[in-house]
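Usage example:
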Amino acid sequence: NAGVTQTPKFQVLKTGQSMTLQCAQDMNHEYMSWYRQDPGMGLRLIHYSVGAGITDQGEVPNGYNVSRSTTEDFPLRLLSAAPSQTSVYFCASGTGQGQYFGPGTRLTVT
Amino acid sequence: ILNVEQSPQSLHVQEGDSTNFTCSFPSSNFYALHWYRWETAKSPEALFVMTLNGDEKKKGRISATLNTKEGYSYLYIKGSQPEDSATYLCALDGSARQLTFGSGTQLTVLP
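Running the assembly step on the lines above writes:
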């Protein structure tokens, strides 16, 4: 099993550009989520999904979209990047017994 | 938004010392309490998931307890080693597996 994979590992965007962060898992988990990690803020939930076709907002959803067309994939879209979205993004999948995190994507918006 | 608090924010201990830290959460809104270990430049790794009041979990030298009535969990490390240095996160599962994380306790074990 590859576990949870994320691409890209690093990305630099200009303000106003859009992009998609990819996340995939091969553990057949129904639950997937996206977090951002900022200094002193811990991990904050952006969006999550409890199964294919179902998504919901977390704590900080503004500026991000998600979709879940398959169990395996949960992409995160930045619609119009802003400097405030500079962060490290983690995707996770799991069950009630815990979540498995991907390696993270470090995004810088200039 | 649930408020999950961890203390202390950071901690330095000598190799061989035992230590513990606290996670506090609103007791009225509880499904499960998770502990994660997060090493620098890596991803968080699950340590424990606890659901019942009075739960105790153990993995090697690390153990955790849970009090849902008063809204806290303790993480203990016995005989700390330099490889235990990491940030320890707790997360509250309030509903629909939507985890709310605390800001973590950063542990440094000095050789």
